[in-house]
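call fold(seq) -> C-alpha coordinates
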Amino acid sequence: MNEAVNKGMSQRVNASKGFVDLVTAEFGGPRSAERLARFDAATPWSALVAVIAELPEYRPASKGGRPAWPTETMLRCLLLAKWFNLSDPQLEDLLQDRLSFRCFVGLSLSDRTTDETTFVRFRERLRSAGVDARLMEILNAHFRDQGLLVNDGVSVDATLVQAPRGRTRADGGRTTDPDAAATSRAGVPHFGYKAHLRVDRSKLVTACRLTDARTSDAAMIDELVRDEHRAVYADSAYESGRRRAGLLDRGVMPWIIYPRRRGQRRVPWHRVMFNHLVARVRAGVEHVMGELKQRHGWRKVRYRGHARNSFDLTMTVISMNLRRAAILRSA
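ret:
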Protein backbone atom coordinates (compact mmCIF):
# COMPACT_ATOMS: atom_id res chain seq x y z
CA MET A 1 0.00 0.00 0.00
CA ASN A 2 1.49 3.32 -1.01
CA GLU A 3 2.09 6.29 1.28
CA ALA A 4 -1.00 8.20 0.14
CA VAL A 5 -3.21 5.25 1.04
CA ASN A 6 -1.63 4.84 4.47
CA LYS A 7 -2.27 8.45 5.39
CA GLY A 8 -5.74 8.52 3.90
CA MET A 9 -6.59 10.31 0.67
CA SER A 10 -8.63 13.33 -0.24
CA GLN A 11 -10.97 12.85 -3.15
CA ARG A 12 -10.71 14.52 -6.50
CA VAL A 13 -13.75 16.35 -7.83
CA ASN A 14 -15.03 15.42 -11.28
CA ALA A 15 -15.36 18.31 -13.69
CA SER A 16 -18.77 19.90 -14.12
CA LYS A 17 -20.55 19.12 -17.36
CA GLY A 18 -19.75 21.67 -20.00
CA PHE A 19 -21.32 22.75 -23.28
CA VAL A 20 -20.00 19.73 -25.17
CA ASP A 21 -21.48 17.37 -22.56
CA LEU A 22 -24.88 19.02 -22.90
CA VAL A 23 -24.77 18.87 -26.70
CA THR A 24 -23.83 15.17 -26.71
CA ALA A 25 -26.20 14.18 -23.88
CA GLU A 26 -28.70 12.69 -26.32
CA PHE A 27 -26.05 10.76 -28.25
CA GLY A 28 -25.25 7.11 -27.65
CA GLY A 29 -27.46 4.06 -27.38
CA PRO A 30 -30.91 4.91 -25.98
CA ARG A 31 -31.46 1.36 -24.72
CA SER A 32 -28.28 1.40 -22.65
CA ALA A 33 -29.10 4.83 -21.29
CA GLU A 34 -32.64 3.77 -20.36
CA ARG A 35 -31.40 0.58 -18.69
CA LEU A 36 -28.76 2.45 -16.71
CA ALA A 37 -31.36 5.00 -15.62
CA ARG A 38 -33.48 2.18 -14.16
CA PHE A 39 -30.46 0.71 -12.37
CA ASP A 40 -29.59 4.16 -11.06
CA ALA A 41 -33.07 4.70 -9.65
CA ALA A 42 -33.09 1.28 -7.95
CA THR A 43 -29.74 1.74 -6.18
CA PRO A 44 -29.47 3.48 -2.76
CA TRP A 45 -26.16 5.13 -3.61
CA SER A 46 -25.90 7.34 -0.54
CA ALA A 47 -26.27 4.41 1.88
CA LEU A 48 -23.74 2.25 0.01
CA VAL A 49 -21.23 5.07 -0.40
CA ALA A 50 -21.48 5.96 3.30
CA VAL A 51 -20.16 2.50 4.27
CA ILE A 52 -17.19 2.74 1.92
CA ALA A 53 -16.46 6.33 2.97
CA GLU A 54 -15.84 5.10 6.53
CA LEU A 55 -12.70 3.28 5.38
CA PRO A 56 -9.42 5.02 6.30
CA GLU A 57 -8.42 5.17 2.62
CA TYR A 58 -11.30 7.54 1.88
CA ARG A 59 -10.96 9.95 4.78
CA PRO A 60 -9.57 13.40 3.91
CA ALA A 61 -5.81 13.57 4.22
CA SER A 62 -4.21 16.04 6.63
CA LYS A 63 -1.32 16.53 4.21
CA GLY A 64 -0.89 16.47 0.50
CA GLY A 65 -1.20 13.34 -1.57
CA ARG A 66 -2.68 12.14 -4.78
CA PRO A 67 -6.46 12.58 -4.56
CA ALA A 68 -8.60 9.47 -4.77
CA TRP A 69 -11.36 9.05 -7.28
CA PRO A 70 -14.81 9.84 -5.83
CA THR A 71 -16.16 6.86 -3.94
CA GLU A 72 -19.48 6.88 -5.78
CA THR A 73 -17.71 7.01 -9.14
CA MET A 74 -15.65 3.93 -8.27
CA LEU A 75 -18.66 2.04 -6.92
CA ARG A 76 -20.62 2.84 -10.06
CA CYS A 77 -17.71 1.57 -12.15
CA LEU A 78 -17.56 -1.66 -10.15
CA LEU A 79 -21.29 -2.32 -10.57
CA LEU A 80 -21.19 -1.31 -14.22
CA ALA A 81 -18.59 -4.00 -14.85
CA LYS A 82 -20.80 -6.55 -13.11
CA TRP A 83 -24.01 -5.62 -14.96
CA PHE A 84 -22.29 -5.97 -18.33
CA ASN A 85 -19.85 -8.76 -17.33
CA LEU A 86 -16.76 -6.70 -18.21
CA SER A 87 -13.13 -7.24 -17.30
CA ASP A 88 -11.16 -4.28 -15.97
CA PRO A 89 -9.49 -3.53 -19.35
CA GLN A 90 -12.87 -3.77 -21.10
CA LEU A 91 -14.42 -1.37 -18.59
CA GLU A 92 -11.65 1.16 -19.10
CA ASP A 93 -12.04 0.97 -22.89
CA LEU A 94 -15.83 1.35 -22.76
CA LEU A 95 -15.62 4.30 -20.36
CA GLN A 96 -13.53 6.02 -23.00
CA ASP A 97 -15.87 4.95 -25.79
CA ARG A 98 -19.47 5.07 -24.47
CA LEU A 99 -21.15 8.33 -23.54
CA SER A 100 -23.85 6.53 -21.55
CA PHE A 101 -21.22 4.81 -19.40
CA ARG A 102 -19.35 8.05 -18.70
CA CYS A 103 -22.56 9.82 -17.81
CA PHE A 104 -23.61 6.99 -15.47
CA VAL A 105 -20.37 7.03 -13.46
CA GLY A 106 -20.27 10.84 -13.34
CA LEU A 107 -17.41 11.58 -15.77
CA SER A 108 -17.63 14.53 -18.12
CA LEU A 109 -15.88 14.50 -21.49
CA SER A 110 -13.07 16.60 -20.03
CA ASP A 111 -12.40 14.21 -17.13
CA ARG A 112 -9.57 11.71 -17.27
CA THR A 113 -10.84 8.13 -17.52
CA THR A 114 -10.32 5.81 -14.58
CA ASP A 115 -7.74 3.15 -15.44
CA GLU A 116 -7.86 -0.59 -14.83
CA THR A 117 -5.21 -0.46 -12.08
CA THR A 118 -7.45 1.85 -10.08
CA PHE A 119 -10.31 -0.65 -10.38
CA VAL A 120 -8.04 -3.42 -9.03
CA ARG A 121 -6.92 -1.30 -6.05
CA PHE A 122 -10.44 -0.18 -5.23
CA ARG A 123 -11.75 -3.73 -5.29
CA GLU A 124 -8.84 -4.91 -3.10
CA ARG A 125 -9.54 -2.21 -0.50
CA LEU A 126 -13.18 -3.22 -0.28
CA ARG A 127 -12.28 -6.90 -0.02
CA SER A 128 -9.64 -6.35 2.67
CA ALA A 129 -12.12 -4.33 4.74
CA GLY A 130 -14.89 -6.92 4.38
CA VAL A 131 -17.25 -4.26 3.03
CA ASP A 132 -19.14 -6.68 0.77
CA ALA A 133 -21.03 -8.29 3.67
CA ARG A 134 -22.07 -4.88 4.98
CA LEU A 135 -23.26 -3.80 1.52
CA MET A 136 -25.45 -6.94 1.35
CA GLU A 137 -27.00 -6.09 4.73
CA ILE A 138 -27.78 -2.54 3.64
CA LEU A 139 -29.38 -3.70 0.40
CA ASN A 140 -31.47 -6.33 2.19
CA ALA A 141 -32.78 -3.65 4.55
CA HIS A 142 -33.42 -1.33 1.59
CA PHE A 143 -35.35 -4.00 -0.31
CA ARG A 144 -37.36 -4.77 2.82
CA ASP A 145 -38.23 -1.08 3.27
CA GLN A 146 -39.20 -0.84 -0.40
CA GLY A 147 -41.52 -3.84 -0.06
CA LEU A 148 -39.57 -5.81 -2.67
CA LEU A 149 -39.02 -8.87 -0.46
CA VAL A 150 -41.93 -11.29 -0.25
CA ASN A 151 -40.79 -12.67 3.14
CA ASP A 152 -42.82 -15.86 2.63
CA GLY A 153 -40.01 -18.39 2.84
CA VAL A 154 -36.63 -18.80 1.17
CA SER A 155 -35.13 -21.27 -1.28
CA VAL A 156 -31.62 -22.63 -0.87
CA ASP A 157 -29.46 -24.17 -3.57
CA ALA A 158 -25.83 -24.70 -4.54
CA THR A 159 -23.92 -24.98 -7.79
CA LEU A 160 -20.43 -26.06 -8.78
CA VAL A 161 -18.08 -23.43 -10.22
CA GLN A 162 -14.96 -24.43 -12.10
CA ALA A 163 -11.46 -23.17 -11.29
CA PRO A 164 -8.35 -23.54 -13.49
CA ARG A 165 -6.35 -26.65 -12.63
CA GLY A 166 -3.16 -24.66 -13.08
CA ARG A 167 0.05 -25.46 -14.88
CA THR A 168 3.50 -26.65 -13.94
CA ARG A 169 6.00 -23.86 -13.30
CA ALA A 170 9.65 -23.96 -14.28
CA ASP A 171 10.63 -24.79 -10.70
CA GLY A 172 8.38 -27.87 -10.70
CA GLY A 173 5.58 -26.34 -8.63
CA ARG A 174 2.04 -25.77 -9.86
CA THR A 175 -0.14 -22.69 -10.12
CA THR A 176 -3.23 -24.60 -8.92
CA ASP A 177 -5.56 -22.62 -6.67
CA PRO A 178 -4.78 -23.95 -3.17
CA ASP A 179 -8.26 -23.11 -1.88
CA ALA A 180 -10.14 -25.02 -4.59
CA ALA A 181 -10.89 -28.74 -4.35
CA ALA A 182 -11.79 -31.68 -6.57
CA THR A 183 -15.06 -33.58 -6.51
CA SER A 184 -17.34 -35.42 -8.92
CA ARG A 185 -21.03 -35.24 -9.75
CA ALA A 186 -22.81 -37.97 -11.69
CA GLY A 187 -19.39 -39.41 -12.52
CA VAL A 188 -18.13 -36.13 -14.01
CA PRO A 189 -15.00 -34.71 -12.29
CA HIS A 190 -15.00 -31.09 -11.16
CA PHE A 191 -12.31 -28.86 -9.70
CA GLY A 192 -13.09 -25.54 -8.11
CA TYR A 193 -15.66 -24.09 -5.75
CA LYS A 194 -19.33 -24.29 -4.83
CA ALA A 195 -21.64 -21.26 -4.58
CA HIS A 196 -24.48 -21.47 -2.06
CA LEU A 197 -27.42 -19.04 -2.35
CA ARG A 198 -30.47 -18.17 -0.26
CA VAL A 199 -33.17 -16.64 -2.45
CA ASP A 200 -36.40 -14.87 -1.50
CA ARG A 201 -39.54 -15.70 -3.46
CA SER A 202 -39.09 -12.35 -5.23
CA LYS A 203 -35.87 -13.85 -6.72
CA LEU A 204 -33.69 -11.51 -4.69
CA VAL A 205 -30.64 -13.23 -3.19
CA THR A 206 -30.53 -12.44 0.53
CA ALA A 207 -27.37 -14.41 1.40
CA CYS A 208 -24.53 -16.21 -0.36
CA ARG A 209 -21.51 -18.29 0.62
CA LEU A 210 -18.59 -19.78 -1.29
CA THR A 211 -16.94 -23.06 -0.31
CA ASP A 212 -14.60 -25.47 -2.03
CA ALA A 213 -16.24 -27.96 -4.36
CA ARG A 214 -15.82 -30.85 -1.95
CA THR A 215 -18.16 -29.29 0.62
CA SER A 216 -21.61 -30.90 0.48
CA ASP A 217 -24.64 -28.86 -0.52
CA ALA A 218 -26.23 -29.43 2.89
CA ALA A 219 -23.21 -28.15 4.84
CA MET A 220 -24.24 -24.50 4.50
CA ILE A 221 -28.04 -24.61 4.70
CA ASP A 222 -28.27 -24.32 8.48
CA GLU A 223 -26.13 -21.18 8.45
CA LEU A 224 -28.00 -19.67 5.51
CA VAL A 225 -31.48 -20.13 7.03
CA ARG A 226 -30.57 -19.37 10.64
CA ASP A 227 -32.72 -16.22 10.72
CA GLU A 228 -35.60 -17.53 8.57
CA HIS A 229 -38.98 -17.68 10.36
CA ARG A 230 -41.46 -18.82 7.70
CA ALA A 231 -40.42 -21.65 5.37
CA VAL A 232 -37.40 -23.25 3.73
CA TYR A 233 -37.57 -24.76 0.22
CA ALA A 234 -34.77 -27.09 -0.87
CA ASP A 235 -34.11 -30.14 -3.03
CA SER A 236 -33.47 -33.68 -1.81
CA ALA A 237 -29.74 -33.02 -1.23
CA TYR A 238 -30.77 -31.15 1.92
CA GLU A 239 -33.06 -33.88 3.27
CA SER A 240 -32.46 -34.78 6.91
CA GLY A 241 -34.89 -35.89 9.59
CA ARG A 242 -32.95 -33.93 12.17
CA ARG A 243 -33.06 -30.81 10.01
CA ARG A 244 -36.81 -31.13 9.47
CA ALA A 245 -37.37 -31.52 13.19
CA GLY A 246 -35.13 -28.55 13.99
CA LEU A 247 -36.97 -26.30 11.56
CA LEU A 248 -40.36 -27.37 12.89
CA ASP A 249 -39.22 -26.65 16.46
CA ARG A 250 -38.51 -23.06 15.34
CA GLY A 251 -41.90 -22.80 13.66
CA VAL A 252 -40.36 -22.96 10.17
CA MET A 253 -42.00 -25.18 7.54
CA PRO A 254 -39.44 -27.60 6.03
CA TRP A 255 -40.46 -27.71 2.36
CA ILE A 256 -37.63 -30.09 1.42
CA ILE A 257 -38.07 -32.59 -1.40
CA TYR A 258 -38.30 -36.21 -0.25
CA PRO A 259 -35.89 -38.57 -2.03
CA ARG A 260 -36.56 -42.20 -2.86
CA ARG A 261 -35.29 -44.27 0.03
CA ARG A 262 -33.16 -47.35 -0.38
CA GLY A 263 -35.41 -50.33 -0.94
CA GLN A 264 -38.33 -48.22 -2.20
CA ARG A 265 -39.48 -48.90 -5.74
CA ARG A 266 -40.92 -45.41 -5.94
CA VAL A 267 -41.69 -42.40 -3.76
CA PRO A 268 -45.20 -42.65 -2.20
CA TRP A 269 -47.85 -40.69 -4.13
CA HIS A 270 -48.50 -38.16 -1.36
CA ARG A 271 -44.79 -37.30 -1.23
CA VAL A 272 -44.70 -37.03 -5.02
CA MET A 273 -47.45 -34.40 -4.80
CA PHE A 274 -45.52 -32.65 -2.03
CA ASN A 275 -42.34 -32.69 -4.14
CA HIS A 276 -44.18 -31.15 -7.10
CA LEU A 277 -45.37 -28.27 -4.92
CA VAL A 278 -41.85 -27.66 -3.63
CA ALA A 279 -40.35 -27.82 -7.13
CA ARG A 280 -42.74 -25.12 -8.38
CA VAL A 281 -41.50 -22.70 -5.73
CA ARG A 282 -37.86 -23.77 -6.13
CA ALA A 283 -37.99 -22.83 -9.82
CA GLY A 284 -37.16 -19.30 -8.70
CA VAL A 285 -33.77 -20.22 -7.28
CA GLU A 286 -33.00 -22.24 -10.43
CA HIS A 287 -33.63 -19.11 -12.51
CA VAL A 288 -31.27 -17.13 -10.28
CA MET A 289 -28.58 -19.81 -10.62
CA GLY A 290 -28.99 -19.70 -14.39
CA GLU A 291 -28.51 -15.94 -14.43
CA LEU A 292 -25.44 -16.21 -12.20
CA LYS A 293 -23.76 -18.71 -14.50
CA GLN A 294 -24.91 -17.56 -17.93
CA ARG A 295 -25.25 -13.78 -17.74
CA HIS A 296 -22.46 -13.18 -15.23
CA GLY A 297 -20.01 -15.88 -16.28
CA TRP A 298 -19.98 -17.77 -13.01
CA ARG A 299 -19.40 -21.13 -14.67
CA LYS A 300 -15.76 -20.42 -13.79
CA VAL A 301 -14.21 -18.27 -11.10
CA ARG A 302 -12.27 -15.23 -12.23
CA TYR A 303 -9.64 -15.05 -9.48
CA ARG A 304 -7.27 -17.27 -7.51
CA GLY A 305 -8.02 -17.91 -3.87
CA HIS A 306 -11.16 -18.17 -1.76
CA ALA A 307 -11.11 -14.60 -0.40
CA ARG A 308 -11.05 -12.90 -3.81
CA ASN A 309 -13.62 -15.23 -5.33
CA SER A 310 -15.92 -14.94 -2.32
CA PHE A 311 -15.85 -11.15 -2.63
CA ASP A 312 -16.49 -11.44 -6.35
CA LEU A 313 -19.50 -13.70 -5.72
CA THR A 314 -21.01 -11.23 -3.26
CA MET A 315 -20.54 -8.26 -5.59
CA THR A 316 -22.01 -10.27 -8.47
CA VAL A 317 -25.04 -11.12 -6.32
CA ILE A 318 -25.41 -7.44 -5.37
CA SER A 319 -25.44 -6.44 -9.03
CA MET A 320 -28.01 -9.16 -9.79
CA ASN A 321 -30.20 -7.94 -6.94
CA LEU A 322 -30.09 -4.35 -8.18
CA ARG A 323 -31.02 -5.49 -11.68
CA ARG A 324 -33.92 -7.50 -10.25
CA ALA A 325 -34.98 -4.58 -8.05
CA ALA A 326 -35.17 -2.36 -11.12
CA ILE A 327 -37.49 -4.90 -12.76
CA LEU A 328 -39.66 -5.20 -9.66
CA ARG A 329 -39.92 -1.41 -9.33
CA SER A 330 -41.02 -1.03 -12.94
CA ALA A 331 -43.60 -3.80 -12.49
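The longest strand covers residues 188-200.
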